[in-house]
Amino acid sequence: MMRADYLLSQLDVLEAESIHVMREVASEFERPVLLFSGGKDSIVMLALAERAFAPARIPFPVMHIDTGHNFDDVIDFRDRRLAEAGARLIVASVQESIDSGRVAEETGRWASRNRLQTTTLLDAITGHRFDAVFGGGRRDEEKARAKERVFSFRDEFGQWDPKNQRPELWNLYNTRINRDEHLRVFPISNWTELDVWDYIAREKLEIPSIYFAHTRPVFERDGILLADGPFMSRGNDEPVFEASVRYRTVGDMTCTGAVESTASTVAEVIAEVSVTRVTERGQTRADDRASEAAMEDRKREGYF
Amino acid sequence: MDILRFATAGSVDDGKSTLIGRLLYDSKAIFEDQLASVEKTSRDRGENYTNLALLTDGLRAEREQGITIDVAYRYFATPKRKFIIADTPGHIQYTRNMVTGASTADLAVVLVDARHGLTEQSRRHAFLATLLRVPHLVLAVNKMDLVDYDAAAFERIAEEFSVFATKLEIGDLTFIPISALHGDNVVQRSPNMPWHDGPSLLHHLEHVHIASDRNLIDVRFPVQYVIRPHEATDPALHDYRGYAGQVAGGVLKQGDEVMHLPSGLTTTVERIDTSNGPIEEAFPPMSVTLVLADDLDISRGDLICRPHNQPSSSQDIEAMVCWMTEARQLTRGSRLVVKHTTRTVKAIVRDLQYRLDVNTLHRDETADGLRLNDIGRVSLRTTQPLFHDPYGRNRQMGGLILIDEATNATVGAGMITEAH
Predict the structure, then answer these.
(1) Strands lying side by side in the sheet with B2-9
(2) ipTM of the predicted structure?
(3) What are the pLDDT digits (tens) for A118-144?
(4) Hey, what CATH topology would domain B312-419 get?
(5) What CATH number does the domain located at B3-213 have?
(6) Which among B60, B72, B400 has the least Cβ separation from residue A296?
């Protein structure tokens, strides 16, 4: 903080804005919930929530939409970190959605549980009667997200209507909804990938080890390095090789790619991120490559 | 490194998308996969150039119809500053979107085509920027390459705008001749225009002084949330009661005598808590938690200020209102919900004094309603007093939104003009 002339650094301003958003939700909603994947954005979100309400505990539960296709390290990390924060964890399981016939497992080479998560998420929101759902989405991630509000309205079907969004002025957020509707709230909308890393470094936040370079058996598909594992339907034309990789995002194993890297500390990751010329979703998310409007389509249906 | 938020205003033909594309590209904020995707789409559409506008058109309908529907936010950084661009479309629902984008902007860039000079639209853009009290305005005269980098063409437009600007309250006005297409005066000063002795656009964005744009004089702390750790096992926390909020004005110091509104009772600031422990001073836009010496009955929607510097408190509010919906009109007698700082109240429209023609600034006192994108002077009566300052003195304390009680839509934005 540059105190002399009352200047604040960009991280201070972003943090203040995000905390304001979280407190606004805690004030105006009865049943908020914070989505947590164990990825770096949700790690920052959890840290911001702790800071927003300290010395009290976070006044809402934390929910993990569990595809069952997890990196081991991430689940351990999740449980340890939430216990530390004293936050209540709700796990909504895609496997249960499959078992109960709500969704059908995809088959074939491109099979993924990524899209199935939407049903699990919407069922959990309805079941728990959540009225505000915090997500760690950022506007720099993807061009449909660049146009989404911080407080983003969802109708009773969980749908997003990009052409009918509420104007958002100053720091005044319209939080009014009817029964069965909800708002998705994105407190770190204005953060970039680099801001997230800078904040992790500055606040010394713990992150799962898969964010650092490690040796892992991978194979290449459509230019993306995917981890070889039991959930993957790998073709014979997709040979496995060992590589030093790290993850830029954490999602379902079947559609989250790794990048080649030797970065073993946060500072080294920041150095790599600073010079990268490819977006994190473009480099690592097979789900966004389906079509130009892949994210927009999933968001309309109720995706994160 | 600090943050500069700026809004860009101009139609597609003024080269706004090209300018944004260039700023993003030259500052390496456009990534290879984004560029590749835009190049592919340009090719698929049979365009023989890379259409940088596609970088900012995110939604399917926008790409299909070649229009921009909504405010998009873009991010880039240089070693000096982080920038947030509110990119507002040039045509459909223009006023509504520009008002939205300008509400948080430190600076507005209004683009003018050097060949056509000032248009009705450029006057409107400049007016809206000043109505929203954007502290810094840049008139970027674009397409200088198409007028042979002629100094006289630039000066003619700058002069004409200066005359118009005397009718507006513009804090800081800068003129820059540019060619977004060729990059003249965008990042680097242009060798094609040696007669221009000012900075490039990016240099101006990096160096414009914004720290003193905030109100650091009038202490204003709208109480947002009360922190009480109920189940605290630590006895020190058992009686903890903190008032959380974002500082809207002034510099709050530990030990300050402060007044609580509406009660009018005074107490002192015992401690200012933040995520990194207690601090001595809090100022905008910090989110902090105040611990006060006395146990007062304080809740969300209340305000903390200094005893000898209080905001106005009134149920009668005068505001310039921008109407943002086509679903209904604002008329005398309209009932609405008002959200102002952390307080939400009901209100009735007592009077519509006039509708303002944003192109001519003519006041139509015979108007009986405000339609989508109209701006007018409105008198509101609220169910509870609002603690407010004029918008021109403090944007946070003078801005309000209007909500339709039946549909829950945000239907208007208001800038409080004066207190009764």
Answers:
(1) B72-77, B81-87, B2-9, B107-113, B136-142, B172-177
(2) 0.94
(3) 899 999 999 999 999 999 999 988 778
(4) Elongation Factor Tu (Ef-tu); domain 3 (2.40.30)
(5) 3.40.50.300
(6) B60
